[in-house]
Structures are given as C-alpha cells and as structure tokens.
Amino acid sequence: DRYAYVPLIGIFVMIAWSAEQISSKAAYFKKIFIFAAVLIIILLTVAAHHQIKLWTNTVTLFENALKKDPHNYFAYHKIGREAAKNGDNKKALDYYDMALKIRPTLYPAYYYKGHVLMKMGKRDEAYKNFEKAIQVNKSFAQAYHALGFLCFEDNNLDKAFAYLTKAIAIKPDHIESYNGLGAVLLKKGRVPEAIVQFQKALKIDPHDKNAQRNMRIALEIIKKNGGGQTTP
Fold first, then answer.
1. What pLDDT score was predicted for residue 1?
2. Closest-CA residue to 88 (of 58, 116, 48, 127)
C-alpha cells in the first residue's frame, strides 16, 4: 500500500496527459473526462478512508491479513507479540501456538512464548521453549541468553556460564550476555574476571544501568572484601 504510488506515477501521467489531449479536441469528451475524474476521486476517497482503518495499529493490520489468509503464521506471531506487550498473556500464548502450528520452525515464536511463560511463573515451560528455539536455530543468541538467565536464577552457575558464553560467541555485541556473564563470575567469586565482562558491556553501552551497578558492586567487593547482589 505505501509504495504502490511510486511505480504508478508514470501510468497516472500517461492517463492525465492523454485525457487532456483528447478532451481538448472536443467539448463532449472534456465533460465526460471531468465527470469521470470527479467520480473516480470520490470512489478512491471512500476506499482510502476504509483502508486507513486497517492501518490503525499492528493488530488491525494483521487481523485483516488473517481474514485474507488464515494460514498467515507471521500475522499470528505479530498479534501475539502485541498481546504480550499489552499484558494479555493468554491471548499471546494462543496466537504463538497458532503460528507454531502452521510453521513449527518459527523460532522467534518459541523465544517470545518463553518470555510470556516466564512472566506467568511457568519457568519449566519457558525453559523448554527457549531450548526449542535453539534447536531450530543454533545461532539464536537471545535464546542462549534467556537460558543462561534462568540458570543463573536457579543458581546453576556452570550451565549459566556455558549458555552466556555461547551467546557472546554468536553475537559479540550482545551487551546483556556480557553483563550476565559478569554476574555469574561475580557470584562464583571470580571478581577480576567479572570486572572484565562489565567493562566489555560498558564499552558497548557506557550508560547501561545494570553493568554500571554491577561494576560498582565488583569494585566494592575488591575494596572492602564484601559482597553484593548482581543483576544479570
């Protein structure tokens, strides 16, 4: 819809100039073209008004796509994401499931479904969906990070370390994984190594609040030989 007018410019010019040339030869043709032009403008105005409603937001757009193609897995996925953003977890899960029923290899749907399940407190199911995401796409860094985060929360530090290291290997600029890996190392008591990871995170984004906070904790541990709670 947004780009159709570009390739049609030449055609519109041809129609307008041809109409002008024909109508200039006879007043009869001129009246016909004026009437036709007014009628076309009215019809296109009504059509445009209807079409604009479909572009109101992401949900209206993709719901219309589903009316035209009930097997549009991408539309189900997009509506699921919007539902998740609005806090409608059940609707989000339903739409993710419909997307995955049509396209079982749609790995982002497993990933975002996992996050919804985490919000609902269903950690085991979330873990399985993150695992499914990397089974489909072994280079999906965000899913490795999510698994690392869950393992960190469960105090399974070795697995968390492995997952976060893998995420960084795939996506060297994944700041969340550097920060998470630093938190794991800090919890293991490997403070100097943790600081290195926080420095890498801050090099990517000097304003990252989690990295700044964890760096302060790490420096305090070195200074006072104390402890602190980190945020991966």
1. 65
2. 116
